[in-house]
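Handout, page 2. Input:
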Amino acid sequence: MNTRTACLIALLFTVVSLLTTGARAEEGKAPPALADTLDQWISLLETDSAKAPVKFASDEKAAKAMQEHWEALKKAHEKHDYRKWLESAKKVKDDKFDVGGHDHSHTHVEWVKTDAGWKLGAIWFCR
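Output:
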């Protein structure tokens, strides 16, 4: 084997090693924190992205509720600024985070911690 071939094999081995190490690191990566998830979800409310229900819903029922109430959620956010929830979200120790309520256009939003990270579990209106 000549020097050029040896160098190419070494380079190929290095590239494959880096790629597989990166893939393993991604697999073992912890899901985003609640505050990060909320920030992303709020950004989608602000840009009116229709993809939010699929990405953030804990199940089909939650996705359907989000789609059904998307306009009400947008209006409530415009009126009450859901970004105020982010500081509280950083302090959550439980597997559930309920926000909104009577002072937020009677819109309640429940976030639940899953193996895949924080997901929207339910939306309900108390009025």
